[in-house]
Design goal:
Elements: E1 5-9, E2 15-28, E3 33-39, E4 43-48, E5 51-55, H1 59-73, E6 79-84, H2 89-94, E7 102-107, H3 110-119, H4 121-124, E8 133-137, H5 140-146, E9 151-157, H6 173-181, E10 183-192, H7 200-213, E11 216-224, E12 229-237, H8 242-245, H9 248-257, H10 267-276
Parallel strand pairs: 6-7, 6-9, 7-8, 9-10
Antiparallel strand pairs: 1-2, 2-3, 3-4, 4-5, 10-12, 11-12
């Protein structure tokens, strides 16, 4: 931060500046710098190691795009694991599906979770208090290795693969193979994958790793204004073919059937995102 201006990198040589109105939290945890602030144009936001993670103005675009395509692809997702997702917004979206009986969130940084509970209620909407939800503070990689529990959906809501060392091992083929073993026979995983435009080589490595492990995969992206770029997502599926199943009428009917109310994702938009592809 320079005075009242937050500067974040969006590419190797490109930066985005945002005017800060008020800082609520600025602290260093065991793993990273945590800032919660109110900023011009985007409202309340969570910043980790200088990278905006979520903002009041557009977090729903990111979290709905991350969570619902994978959830809709599975015919009846009951057990869901989220790795990361400290602010609780991915958990919020998962719990909208009435098929979910258990939603487990594993985040490495307890300080992020605690700060989010206190300052980011608009983001988590009390999802931490849902009786179906459970939060474990642990290293996501170690947790999946050591815990042979099977899940229908595994959501990787991580910091960007190039923004810090915390999540780097969670973008590897070795990790995706472990995730595969922790999924049910028709299980689905999804990861956010940063920016394919600014970090094409990193993104390609992630896609190739997932393609090497899963029979079916899907790449899609959505513009996130507070990130300053189109954020990419990659799905890996053991049984369901995303492009064959995720059509407008199917998407809308499942959202209604499961009682899911969204602000951004619907059949038309998701089908368009899939058709758009990536840069």
């Amino acid at each position: 931060m320079l005075g009242l201006i937050a500067v974040q990198g969006i590419g190797k040589g490109s930066y985005m500046m945002t005017k800060i109105k008020k800082v609520h939290v600025a602290k260093k945890s065991k793993y990273q710098e945590i800032i919660v602030a109110d900023v011009e144009d985007f409202g309340r936001c969570l910043i980790l190691d200088g990278y905006i993670q979520s903002t009041e103005a557009d977090e729903y675009v990111y979290h709905e795009s991350l969570v619902h395509p994978a959830m809709l692809l599975h015919q009846s997702p009951s057990k869901v694991l989220i790795i990361g997702g400290g602010e609780g917004a991915a958990l919020r979206e998962v719990l909208k599906h009435n098929t979910v009986k258990k939603a487990l969130m594993v985040d490495i940084d307890e300080d992020v979770v605690n700060v989010s509970k206190e300052y980011l209620q608009l983001f988590h909407c009390n999802s931490f208090d849902d009786p179906r939800a459970r939060v474990i503070i642990a290293d996501g990689y170690k947790y999946i290795v050591d815990t042979p529990e099977i899940h229908d959906i595994i959501i990787l809501d991580l910091t960007d693969p190039y923004s810090s060392e915390i999540a780097s091992t969670l973008y590897t083929e070795q990790f995706y193979k472990i995730v595969y073993r922790r999924l049910s026979e028709d299980g689905v995983m999804v990861t956010q994958a940063g920016s394919a435009f600014f970090y094409h080589d990193v993104y390609n490595n992630i896609v190739e790793a997932i393609k090497n492990v899963y029979p079916y995969h899907l790449e899609y992206q959505v513009w996130i204004p507070s990130f300053g770029y189109a954020c990419n997502f990659v799905i890996g599926s053991k049984k369901y073919h995303p492009r064959e199943l995720l059509k407008k009428d199917y998407i809308d009917s499942v959202l209604i059937e499961r009682g899911v109310k969204t602000r951004f994702i619907n059949g038309s938009k998701l089908e368009a995102l899939i058709r758009l592809g990536i840069y």
